[in-house]
Batch of 2 targets.
Target 1
Amino acid sequence: MAGVSLRRVRKSFDGQTVIRDIDLDIADGEFCVFVGPSGCGKSTLLRLVAGLETVSGGAVLIGGEDVTAAPPRARGIAMVFQSYALYPHMTVRENIAFGLETRRARKAEIAARVEAVAKRLELEGLLERLPKQLSGGQRQRVAIGRAIVREPRVFLFDEPLSNLDASLRVQMRIEIARLHQSLRTTMIYVTHDQVEAMTLADKIVVLNAGRVEQAGAPTELYRHPRNLFVAGFIGSRRMNFLPVRAEGMRDGAVEVLLPGGGRLAVPVAGEGARAGEALTLGIRPEHLRLAGGAPDLAGPVEVVEELGDEQLAYLRLPDGGLVTARLESGTAPREGETGALELPPAECHLFRADGSAFGRP
Amino acid sequence: MTRHDDALGLARIRIRAAWMFLAPTLIVLAAVAGWPLLRTIWFSFTDAELGNLSGYRFIGFANYLERYEGEWLGLLADPAWWGAVRRTIWFALVSVSLEAVLGMIVALALNARFPLRGLVRAAILIPWAIPTIVSARMWAWMLNDQFGVINHALLALGLIDAPVAWLADPDLALWAVVIVDVWKTTPFVALLILAALQMLPGDCYEAARVDGIHPVRVFFRVTLPLIRPALVVALIFRALDALRVFDLVYVLTSGSAGTMSMSVYARQQLVDFQDVGYGSAASTLLFLVIALLTLSVVVLGRLRLDGEAGR
């Protein structure tokens, strides 16, 4: 078992920089998720940790040891690929055992370890099958088994669930979480799905255009996004962004002018905010409430989505912007009616014009 | 008419259409392959001669084997024929084995990334693109004992003291034919293997790298089993060609100096000795030998494939 550290890691392909000076520390036993939109460099970063790509600059440390120049096999890692990467002509048993046979391990020991892994992943009845005779979920379990059996210091997962259908994905997600609980090995997991990131991670690393936008615990990223990108990326429903104008500072709060003319004191550390400055207010759909008294935001309801236990109402604001509110089932106004919403000040985020967030208590 | 009858009528029309589309091919095949084959088999039971193809009589199996004044005569008792059979099979085994190994090496090299790969891939096909007669003539000149460039080069390098009679020396001539055949057909084998290599799943190789499996082991345990179907097809094609080898031998040595193949033997009987009956018997046996070998390769190959699939 070992932690992983990246020191000013850089990677470029043919003069195009895809990873820019990334510094990152992943603690021993931590479940770290790299998340970001496609093309953000998350898979490349994982392949740099694996040693499948060589860094253009900087250093990769595993267990405190510099492995920047070491080949993949010398790094003590195991990797699960998006496409499973099973050997098509080998049975499940041979697939799992293949990585062990090189280490001059005794046949009986290999067989015992394969059996143990098969039992753990409920693959016992499938050991003599070929990959083509397995379902997608079973293949993914074989790929995981092939990684586990080598008892690596670090597990690397490259979008392992993206080829599975939605229900199987949830099931495998739980299996992977359980696996991490029992193995307590460091895991690095790449995904573009922020729900997977939120549910699995001890630490989420949000990547964008080859840079780390923010790294931290899931709740930290949810409550205290450092900038607009993270705020918009994390959360199962995208945060609403409203253009506002700073009116002035009161102690520990910035008073802003909302679209439609309402005023709101947002409790943020407002140092540096100037009156008249254009800012962005962020509020998550799940934090908007129907107004009891005078509304903060009002506008015609364009669409209501019925989800059974909840409703999503889309309001057109006076400035032309659209705002999404998650409301309790049966409470939303009808389409075409005017909706009136209240913004709980404590749930609001405030961002400067450059995208950076004001600190929240 | 009911719908059922309609459907039957439609099926009949489709079957008739299928036969109409097949008919030209079947007629041409019958004319250029079926008829000559049947005629050859028929002639093998006669005493026909090239100078007089109409005045022959049926003599049964006499061309193959007959007992005449206490002696066994006929093709099956002819040591020259059996020499040709042995030589042809030896030639096929050696040249196809060399082509498999070299073709594999070339394909693996061409599968790697390097600058100008496209150009090299095209260039390697040149020997295969040249007509056999032309390349055989070219090699005959290069291998010429007095004026050949190969002797010249070897002499200049000091590797040999005197010119070597590559095509006249019975110990060397068949090897010379093998070398030219390998030179010519390795690109074909390499291309078929390369096509198979490019279909291989790339992530399996990354998985093997992460798992620290030695590249040689990956080749024998992953690459080779995965490209075996393509390899078997390439080698069956090559083996059939090699067993029928004629033009190469005929141009290089005219079948002398211990290089006579089954095809060259049959031609010699047919044309040089004018003995159409005997030559036809040789051709028929050649056909049977190739058919049996092919059949056994296909059957054995399939049995092994089934055995694997059933595991």
Target 2
Amino acid sequence: MIRDPLQQPIKLVIDTSLLVLILGYKCMLLDKAEPLERVRVLNQIRGRDGGILTQRFDDLWSLFWSAASRTVTQHVIADGLSTLGCGDP
Amino acid sequence: MPYGPNIVRAWFDTVFQYAFRGLESERVFLAGRDWTFRFQTRALEYLNPLAKHLPAAARENLEQFVSFFPLVRPRISDHDFCEHQLEENCRAYFNAILESPSFQKIFENVASEAPDAMGREFRSHFGAYTAQTDFMGSLAEYLINNVERLPSYYSTAQLWDRYRDRFLPLAFDPALAHLRTATEQAGCSMLEAVNDLTSLLKEKRSELSLRFDVPYVAELDNVR
């Protein structure tokens, strides 16, 4: 396979707010939640009003999986788990 | 009056908040002629009956609200009926696309040309999907939802952006044109129903707010 030389691999650096959304998205998929329920829960996780388009959560998920590499620091993981109420790591 | 500020507060927080958010989301999709049809489920992902936009526990509050405002029920029914019609039309259009000899021929030509033209296996454009029926389903889904360009992080983006114009003329294929038109009209009808329902709910919310001195939003911490 020949890689398109113009296509740069995506490298993602994820902060806490994105990590918890990605974890939430995965949980909703595993729970086989209906799409609208998934959007409701993700909006709650996001914890802010501001009229984010429903599609943006799907876009974030696709972006995450399309990345060639993803960087999440230990501090962000700990912060994210704490945000989700998973206790001390 | 059998209800008061407490009940009105509950309606605002558990019914109106979610209903308006859901209806606004639907409005954006419908205005963009994206019906959110998904080939795996043969259903509309983000266009749904109004009650489904509310958390399950809040649906009884919706029923209570409607019991006191019976004029709202027909508008909700219109909205839900339009959603159902649009879903049925999308399904019929989708099935016709898959069975269309023209679509199959275009698909085969693209599948044959793309590896050399794009330097990668055809199946690699479809992410986790491995079956040809899924490849065809994905492309038919884009046609139905009037997808133009895809963001670059979608695995099918390059393929769709390059070959979209080969598939678009299918909309005018004699076997498909009437189904496409029916789908577009159903989408327009649903958009109208969304706007009508939104207007009516806003009107009722305003009346209740002023009559019972209940603000739309009590505290920002309680609102997501």
